[in-house]
Design brief:
Order of helices and strands: EHEHEHEHHEHEHH
Radius of gyration: 17 Å
Strand order of the largest sheet: 2-1-3-4-5-6
Low-confidence stretches: 241-246
Structural class: alpha/beta
Shape: globular
Oligomer: single chain
Helix content: 25-40%
Strand content: 5-15%
Number of helices: 8
């Protein structure tokens, strides 16, 4: 867990879960924008940055169990979850575990750049060569594209990327599980990994209201549309004081 800007007086915590191959630093701009208004906590997956010497996790249940074990004790104020891509599924699974344990549900789940848990595609990127995996990452765009042309950096990060892809591409949801917290779905209008129908299907996974917000852009729309995303999260959490990203 990484807290870039501790905010002990904040009325709500926002726990952010990165995409496959992503790291906690991906959410540094969001933490900076909210400042003291929201305490932003970013999950650091194993196999990267400060945890680069730890083996990666290749299945969603173990990922969710470990994250839940950290979050279950944060009960002094409301907690919201923001997950992008694979992180959206992990956020969903953590929220399911919170409900099953009898804990307060998240104030809101933000599911960004990911189709609903019940929407499957036959994706086998984790079985491909390193070259095929790099091509996949290049095709999705996003941050740190220069890293993909550096052989030394690639050798460090590709094992974690492959573990993440193996986890999310083999994921199966529990059809009996339901959330009882509101869900905000964020999606790019040209994201090759999520159609609008797949995004709307999140409504099947909670008994609370669901809203869909469509942004201009691809899979990593929230990088280019960061100010709009921050404003949406701030409105949804009913907080003030978030600064626009410059």
């Amino acid at each position: 867990m990484k807290i870039f800007h501790p905010a002990s007086a904040a009325s709500v915590r926002l726990v952010c879960l990165p995409h496959a191959g992503g790291s906690a630093s991906f959410f540094f701009p969001m933490a900076k924008a909210f400042g003291p208004a929201v305490e932003v906590m970013a999950i650091q997956y194993p196999g990267r940055q400060a945890r680069r010497h730890e083996p990666g996790i290749d299945n969603v249940p173990e990922y969710a169990d470990q994250i839940f074990a950290v979050l279950r004790h944060l009960d002094d104020r409301p907690l919201a979850l923001f997950g992008h891509s694979m992180g959206a599924i992990l956020a969903y699974e953590v929220a399911i575990r919170m409900r099953q344990a009898g804990l307060p549900s998240p104030a809101r789940l933000f599911a960004s750049g990911r189709r609903a848990p019940s929407c499957y595609r036959d994706e086998q990127v984790h079985k491909g060569s390193d070259e095929q995996m790099v091509a996949e990452l290049q095709g999705l765009g996003g941050p740190n594209q220069a890293m993909l042309t550096d052989p030394e950096l690639l050798a460090m990060v590709l094992p974690a990327v492959r573990s993440d892809y193996r986890a999310i591409e083999r994921y199966e949801h529990d059809p009996q599980a339901r959330l009882d917290c509101p869900v905000t779905v964020l999606v790019g209008d040209s994201d090759p990994r999520v159609t609008l129908d797949e995004a709307r299907a999140w409504a099947k996974h909670t008994t609370a209201p669901t809203e869909l917000e469509v942004f201009r852009g691809g899979h990593f729309f929230l990088v280019d549309r960061s100010t709009d995303v921050i404003e949406l999260v701030a409105r949804s959490l009913s907080v003030q004081g978030a600064e626009p990203i410059r």
